[in-house]
């Protein structure tokens, strides 16, 4: 692609995670909007070179409908203590952002809190299918295990695309970021938490947790994910307590309950594989939804995100006036 950093104009911040910051940028030569992720790292020549080598693996992954396209990785000339990753921009953002926006605006829309989200079973089926396809492509063709499936790494576009990003984030990269909790995620499978060997089935566990969260609006197993103590406690409970389940009270269809039950199995050997899940009735169910309809659903989400941004801005303006 040959994107040069000099050809980029920053458009605004998208978000930040525990490893870095993502901004929206315009690639001037072809007027394309892209996402630029900046990760601060240790300033050691050897580490940096190895990192770039590992990141170049991402470059060797050929485009796929369910993988966010990678445009390149650089060290910024100004400060060599950070690494910059350029990738495709997805205009509806990540599932965690969509869920947060949904939680903020549902009371407004309904006049009362409900325990429903904008994600219905059909859209979740489509999303799960995309995640499974992306994961099996990475593994089949490149032997890459994603390792970090969570709502913030599943992105949606108003064209109706669902893609996964941040795969196989190299352990070198994780180790060179000075923060103990980088690389720790509450979506990790029990075997991963315990430091055992893991396979693509670790990502299946994460997918199961994610589906419960999209349906109910809440991370299963509760806990306080914002403090180190809370995270450690949660990880301990994932290892020691029974796996999370969707209530089978008739609120959810039998197929989705069964699908989640096959993902959220603590013993990796008994958990379903990517291939098995791709043939599950829950995934087949989503195929009845026409592409056009799913695209409409994505467009509706984008509109709602815009509306929410406007409401937030109005509220901020009002708060400013009150202060004066
Ligand atoms: P995390 O995934 O841990 O939240 P990241 O630094 O990977 O942290 O990403 C920060 C946020 O930026 C994500 O939550 C997501 O909402 C957004 N984001 C990341 N990559 C993209 C992209 N390619 N297009 C649009 N939004 C993105
Ligand atoms: Mg991410």
TrEMBL record:
Organism domain of life: Eukaryota
Membrane-spanning residues: none
Species the sequence originates in: Lachancea mirantina
One of the protein's GO biological processes: pheromone response MAPK cascade
Residues at which ATP binds: 37
Residue ranges occupied by any Protein kinase domain in the UniProt entry: 8-283
GO cellular component: cell tip
Enzyme Commission no: 2.7.12.2
Keywords: ATP-binding, Coiled coil, Kinase, Nucleotide-binding, Phosphoprotein, Serine/threonine-protein kinase, Transferase
Broad EC category: transferase
Residue runs in coiled coils: 298-324
Record GO terms (molecular function): ATP binding; MAP kinase kinase activity; protein serine/threonine kinase activity
Family under the similarity heading: Belongs to the protein kinase superfamily. STE Ser/Thr protein kinase family. MAP kinase kinase subfamily.
Residues shown, of full length: 108 to 431 of 447
Name of the molecule in the record: mitogen-activated protein kinase kinase
Keyword Isomerase attached: no
Catalysed reactions, semicolon-separated: L-threonyl-[protein] + ATP = O-phospho-L-threonyl-[protein] + ADP + H(+); L-seryl-[protein] + ATP = O-phospho-L-seryl-[protein] + ADP + H(+); L-tyrosyl-[protein] + ATP = O-phospho-L-tyrosyl-[protein] + ADP + H(+)
């Amino acid at each position: 692609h040959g994107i040069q950093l000099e050809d980029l104009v920053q458009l605004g911040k998208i978000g930040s995670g525990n490893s870095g910051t993502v901004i929206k940028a315009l690639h001037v030569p072809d007027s394309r909007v892209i996402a630029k992720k900046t990760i601060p790292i240790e300033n050691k020549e050897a580490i940096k070179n190895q990192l770039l080598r590992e990141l170049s693996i991402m470059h060797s992954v050929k485009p796929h409908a369910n993988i966010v396209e990678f445009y390149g990785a650089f060290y910024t000339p100004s400060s060599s203590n950070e690494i910059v990753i350029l990738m495709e921009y997805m205009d509806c953002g990540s599932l965690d952002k969509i869920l947060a926006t949904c939680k903020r605006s549902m009371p407004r829309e309904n006049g009362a809190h409900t325990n429903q989200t904008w994600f219905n079973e059909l859209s979740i089926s489509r999303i799960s299918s995309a995640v499974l396809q992306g994961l099996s492509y990475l593994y089949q063709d490149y032997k890459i295990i994603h390792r970090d499936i969570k709502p913030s790494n599943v992105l949606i576009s108003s064209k109706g695309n669902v893609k996964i990003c941040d795969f196989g984030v190299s352990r070198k990269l994780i180790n060179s970021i000075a923060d103990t909790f980088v690389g720790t995620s509450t979506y990790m499978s029990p075997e991963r938490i315990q430091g055992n060997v893991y396979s693509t089935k670790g990502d299946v566990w994460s997918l199961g947790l994610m589906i419960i969260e999209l349906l109910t609006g809440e991370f299963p197993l509760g806990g306080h994910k914002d403090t180190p103590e809370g995270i450690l406690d949660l990880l301990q409970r994932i290892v020691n307590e029974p796996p999370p389940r969707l209530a089978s009270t008739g609120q959810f269809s039998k197929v989705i309950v069964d699908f989640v039950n096959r993902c959220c199995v603590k013993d990796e050997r008994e958990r379903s594989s990517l291939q098995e899940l791709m043939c599950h009735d829950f995934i087949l169910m989503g195929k009845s939804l026409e592409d056009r309809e799913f695209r409409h659903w994505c467009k509706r989400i984008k509109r709602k995100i815009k509306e929410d941004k406007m409401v937030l801005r109005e509220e901020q303006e009002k708060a400013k006036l009150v202060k004066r």
